[in-house]
Amino acid sequence: MSTQRTSESSQDNDARLESAVDDAFDRLADEGEQRLDRTWKALVSTGLMGGIDVAVGLLAMLVVIEQTGSTLLGALAFSIGFVALLLADSELFTEGFLVPVTAVAAKRGRPSALARLWGVTLVANLIGGWVMAWLIAHAFPHLHALAVETAAHYATAGLSLRTACLAVLAGAAITLMTRMQHGTDSDIARVVAAVAGGFVLAGTQVFHSVLDSLLIFTALAGGSAPYGYLDWLQWFWYTALLNVAGGLGLVTLLRLVRTKERVQQERAAR
Questions:
Q1: Which has the closest alpha carbon to 107: 36, 39, 172, 38?
Q2: Predicted confidence band at 17 (pLDDT cuts at 50, 70, 90)?
Q3: Distance between CA 99 and CA 92 in Å, rounded?
Q4: In sequence order, what DSSP letters do the residues of 145-165 get, joined into one string?
Q5: Residue-range definition of the domain harbouring residue 38
Q6: Is residue 270, in this structure, part of any structural domain at all?
């Protein structure tokens, strides 16, 4: 009798787990479909705001590092930018490696729409972030030396096994943050995930294509940096590609494998 009750309890737990997985999949696919269907105007505006939000976090990070000398406290301050992204419903390029991809996998969106979302968002992030970086550089000239020193870690880094790993880890970290935020209905838990994600990305100095680009832009806008936009571009191209590889390969792909049956059901229904 005891063995039977244990078996029934185990089956109930498995059923609840599968139900939770299905619910999470539905939330991801529904939101992904909405994001893929955004108009050009909406994509540009949310992308610009995403760059602005991240730049606000960058400003907070630089101020805290200057005052305390602590990179980790600065990373905690940077998470303000990710909280702003969450609460303002802005769009960040590297946050698009899970939700819209799930919608495409479920046949609720086309790959061309995903390419449009990624391309427009990335360009808009960089434009909005560059404007904010210029403003920060000229509003807070005493932060220029710190920005130049900090950004050199990225702008002068050539492609190697180490830098490739740093970029892959950044893509995986932010996609995991997105996954955590969509795995709960609690706003408090989502904010905690945003703070954790921002802390990991900024505190460990992994290579994030948008965040670190804005840091480099701030250094360049202030003038007299020992590197230039060509150095940034040589760093940026492989970082962006490996961010995508890390987000898709280490988080999204495993998530889709876990929900393979549900993905197949969605495709069959469509």
A1: 36
A2: very low
A3: 12
A4: HHHHHHHHHHHTPPP-HHHHH
A5: 27-141+152-264
A6: no
